[in-house]
From TrEMBL:
Belongs to the SGT family. Gene3D superfamilies: Immunoglobulin FC, subunit C, Tetratricopeptide repeat domain. SMART domains: TPR (SM00028). It comes from Aspergillus niger. GO terms for cellular component: membrane; TRC complex. This is SGTA homodimerisation domain-containing protein.
């Protein structure tokens, strides 16, 4: 059975993550050869081309695999029911905005008003790097993706926003 498009995108995201881990110093130069071999094996096995920048960008949707995983970790550990109410006073909500992330969101809103959707997507992505599970930022980026005709990515962000906050139905508007 051939890999699905979803699995091919995941393979590209993994290859991108490995390369980024070398570049940012997470992995040492001593690991470079092993990482390059791993990247090559993944690319060959899944029949993907990591040198195709558009395909890699499409695979990670303007985010890194590490940031996507951090959202997953926050959602996975999110308390539910009574334990959520008990924990609310102990720590700020996941994805709590900061002055910097709110500034980026406002700039993204300005870009949306100018119909500069790629800039808006970039600014909302930067805000999400600071507050990765903020449903408002996810919803805003979903709107920007939708306006740019990237409806699959819009749906992904809307789903993430409602996963973070099931009561935030505005994510789909």
């Amino acid at each position: 059975m051939a890999p699905t498009e979803s699995k091919k995108r995941l393979a590209l995201a993994i290859i991108d993550f490995l390369g980024a881990s070398l570049k940012d110093g997470t992995l040492t130069a001593d690991d470079a050869e092993s990482i390059e071999i791993a990247q090559s094996c993944i690319a060959d096995t899944f029949k993907v081309d990591p040198s195709n920048e558009a395909a890699v960008k499409d695979a990670v949707g303007g985010q890194s695999l590490a940031s996507i995983y951090s959202v997953y970790e926050k959602l996975r550990n999110k308390p539910t029911g009574d334990s959520a109410k008990a924990g609310e006073s102990q720590k700020p909500a996941a994805g709590a905005p900061t002055p910097e992330s709110d500034k980026l969101k406002s700039e993204g809103n300005g870009a949306m008003a100018r119909k500069d959707y790629s800039t808006a997507i970039d600014l909302y992505t930067q805000a999400l790097a600071i507050a990765p599970s903020n449903p408002i930022y996810l919803s805003n980026r979903a709107a920007a993706y939708s306006a740019a005709g990237q409806h699959e990515k819009a749906a992904e962000d809307a789903e993430l926003a409602t996963a973070v906050d099931p009561k935030y139905s505005k994510a789909w508007s």
